[in-house]
Please model this.
Amino acid sequence: MPSRLFSLIALLCLSCALYAQSQNRERYQVYGGYTFLSNTLNGVAGSHQPLNGAEGSLAFPAWHNLRFKVDAYFYRGTNLGAPQHPFYILGGGQYSWHVRRESVYVEALAGDSGANKTWGTNATGQTASFAALLGGGLDTPISRRFAFRVSGGYQYSYFELVTPWPNLIPYRIPGLPTNFMRLSSGLVWHF
Model:
């Protein structure tokens, strides 16, 4: 009798272990890749220049397909003779679902953005702004732990110019962009 009971317990433990290994439970997602912004901060009508940069993000374990995500990205470029170095740090939610092998997601993020003080042409630029991103993407698996991601979305950020010292009064030139399109692609590590 004890040998049968021992065999039954061993069989139950083994089947639970095999079931747990067959489930692909990803807990975290780390992403790194290239990002593209449709316009510069001072890209008024007639002088639109896109910006190129890099992005990194961390998504925490999912709860009913909803994850908390922290995203950071920066760009480099010039427009109208002024250097453009904006950076963004955003956080929010990412909801995903699986379609066959691929994973499709939508996200809504909000946070802070900053830029170098000389982004405005012949004026000092405001260096902090609210930013928001609404978008989505597609992850295609490459291996068990890695996937290729393509994403895009609408980004809002509001930067102003500042008058020289001592006044430091913000003002807005008509036509300064606040609405941007953002595209990104790179690798996701699931662990």
